[in-house]
Amino acid sequence: MTYFQKLLEILVVSTKLGLTSFGGPIAHLGYFREEYVNKRKWLTDKAYADLVALCQFLPGPASSQVGIGIGVSRAGTLGGFISFIGFTMPSVLALILFVFLANQFNVMDAGFIQGLKLTAVAVVAHAIIGMAANLAPDLKRKTIVLFSLLATLLIPHVLTQVSVIVIAGIIGWILFKGIQTTQTESFSIPLSKTVGAVCLALFFILLAGLPFLATWMSSTWISMIDSFYRSGSLVFGGGHVVLPLLEREFVPTGLISEESFLAGYGAAQAVPGPLFTFAAYIGADMAGWTGGFIATAAIFLPAFLLIFGTLPFWSSLSQNKQMKAALLGVNAAVVGILISAFYQPIWLSAIGSTIDFALAALLFFMLAYWKLPPWTVVVAGAIGGQLLTLL
Question: Which family does it belong to (predicted)?
Fold first, then answer.
């Protein structure tokens, strides 16, 4: 098979996954394993598990980073980009089109928008319960959850979230240094340590430098890129956690209304692919098609820099007990941040009556206990919201 044929194969397979992978990052990893490990034998089950371990260790969209890593292992750096495009573009295009239709027909006051907001209540509640069980199983981590919740709820600022994550990492390093964790082995990848070091350096340079550049230049575009890049750099625990970061970047400043933000979040549940593509909706709502694609590039750029930067060093990094201990504290803090976002803005803006709560409870039950696909829950929420207008 020629190199071009490999790239074409990656594009076809990843696009198929991008069109059909509903259910969030855990479901995506299941689809990936079935397609890439069981069906196509592109890598072994153990190599896949090692790659998943690395991507869960890093901030950012874990499923997208796994897809990028598989593309790199198959066809080098270009293979990683092609894999990302195939998996991500279907949902990006769908959400940008949703913005266009919503603005064209002025549907933000329609009943189904309220239904999408109630769907967001059900989806985030389900995510919180699952994450809390896995990431805060003991009293120490539950306490970290509580104080992270209190800090982000009482001091609603993006610097609070960053501070909470840093402090939780330090506390985790202190408390959990002796905890036993699963050992992993290195994942072979055709990237040099020089490339890795450059990517990691660029990641931190942009993270520190973009805020200063945005202030100095007073450019709306630079400010938007900074906000999306920073959000993509600070998300541990999956796509749902990007919600509070994006909400506090764009809603208080009036760049996007709270109603439009939550409607888009509900719509993002209805499309396959990574939830990080919600950035495309926000960018398109702010600045049209161009804004949608720039927002997508900005929020996913940290994922590329981190996966390219850490793959060459993963063998030693994965065995570092101090890093693992710090991550236990960070993951617990993520749960607290998510609960804070669940209350404000999701709950306060969506639940306004008994009937709202009843519909949200029904949607939650459909997702959590009847195990219905997320897209069917979104459709049910939209229909239910529209029916509420008739009562």
Answer: Belongs to the chromate ion transporter (CHR) (TC 2.A.51) family.
Host domain of residue 215 = 3-388
Residue 57 to residue 237: CA distance in whole angstroms: 9
Distance (Å, whole) CA 277 – CA 28: 14
329-to-147, 208, 245 alpha-carbon distances in Å: 12, 23, 19
Number of domains in the chain: 1
Tokens (6 digits) for 10? 């990656």
Cβ-based neighbour number of residue 209 at 10 Å: 12
DSSP reduced 3-state for 192? coil
Per-residue pLDDT tens digits for 241-274 = 777 778 878 888 888 888 788 888 878 877 888 8
Residue type present at position 178: G
**pLDDT of 68-77, one tens digit each?**
999 998 988 9
Report d(CA 92, CA 9) in Å as an integer. 21
CB atoms inside a 10 Å sphere around CB 45 = 10
